[in-house]
Amino acid sequence: MDENSVKIEASWKKILKDEFQKPYFKALSVFVRDEYQKKNNDKKIFPAPKDIFRSFDLCPFHKVKVVILGQDPYHGEYQANGLSFSVNNGITLPPSLKNIFKEIKSNIGIEQMEKSNGDLSDWAKQGVLLLNATLTVRAQSPGSHQNRGWEQFTDAVIDRLVAHREHIVFMLWGNYARNKGRLIDRTKNLVLESAHPSPFSAYNGFFGCKHFSKTNRYLRENEEREIEWS
Fold it and tell me: N or C: which end of the chain has fewer CB within 10 A?
């Protein structure tokens, strides 16, 4: 997974070119490759290799209007699909995603009609970068690929957005995501912070945050097309 082998959308590959050449990314590449290739590893690695950079592939650099930051990919079988908080159609909705849909309904009155459809790829195609701070994980082992270099890489992603773009909405849910807020120029972008949508914290500030209406209002004020959250 060096610069030449990284399979990522062209605009992101260009803006992140220097990052792929740094020692930490080369070490990260070796670690991730070894994790996927281990013959004696009884735990799978998620998401599938082709989906590691899917959030970037569906949302090119110049189209980003919103960033929703997650922590790790889902670590259960068939769940992680490369987009934070998203699962493929037909997969049981994880609790955090259920709570996101509840807040959308409460905030802007949109009912998620397909209860089995947690695929958020349509958001990504509209300009929502569904970014996890760590892009891979070992099955049933949350946090297992943290502190290997992914955090530095996703810091660089935010740094490039802040340096070259403006009027982006950053949704930071939970303390882990809020820590990324230090990288954002709040005079040129909108930062929305709340508790995480997990059942353990959703009632402590996520429900009622109204981030979805606030996002669309900010986009509208800056002459950007609103996101259709359905």
Answer: C
pTM beyond 0.90, yes or no:
yes
The DSSP string of the chain is --TTT----HHHHHHTHHHHTSHHHHHHHHHHHHHHH-SS--S-EES-GGGTTHHHHHS-GGG--EEEEESS---STTT--SSTT---TTSPPPHHHHHHHHHHHHHH----S-TT----HHHHHTTEEEEESS--EETTBTTTTTTSSHHHHHHHHHHHHHHH--S-EEEEESHHHHGGGGGS-TTTSEEEEE--SSTTTGGGTTTT--HHHHHHHHHHHTT-PPP---
The residue type of 160 is R
pLDDT at residue 39 above 60? Answer: no
- Say what the pLDDT of residue 43 is: 80
Mean pLDDT of 101-113: 85
Inter-axis angle of helices 95-108 and 211-221, nearest 10? 60
Contacts of 33 (CB under 8 A, 6+ apart): 1
Question: Which residues, in sequence order, are CB contacts of 111 under 8 Å at separation 6+?
Answer: 105
